[in-house]
Amino acid sequence: MGTSHIYPGAYSLNAYITIDGCSDAIEFYKKAFGATEKGRLLMPDGKIGHAEIDIEGTLLMMADENADWGTKGPLSLGGNPMSFGLYVKDADAAFQKAIDAGGTSVMAVDDMFYGDRVGQVMDPFGFKWMIATHKEDMSYEEMQRRFDKMLCE
């Protein structure tokens, strides 16, 4: 059986939120909603660069605010605290279709360290869409290794 075009545990469309205090939010979601933490990738300063939780069988992805990446949570001023993650069979074709429909390229489609092929499009309404095709399964340890390498380049 080959690797699916959708990341394990994800759906075709997934929420990805930015939070000031992501670690505290994860603990709250565990308490409030019975969330299960699937994993997290830490930045060199200890903040969360990426985390995943499962709530009632639904994947929710999140990260701490990061000024270098231009991300802010809803309690901060400015910015959009949310991105949609859409898994498709062909990220390149879906990205181009979104551009053709009136979206604006935020990031060209490329292979990412975490095993997905991803491009980012801003729709005309101010929402960012990360359009992805999953290509490679790996452990969080391998993702962290690749994440660390990417941050040092």
From TrEMBL:
Superkingdom of this protein's organism: Bacteria
Cited InterPro entries: Glyas_Bleomycin-R_OHBP_Dase, Glyas_Fos-R_dOase_dom, VOC_core
VOC domain: residues covered: 9-134
Name of the protein this chain belongs to: PhnB protein
Lineage, highest ranks first: Bacteria, Pseudomonadati, Bacteroidota, Flavobacteriia, Flavobacteriales
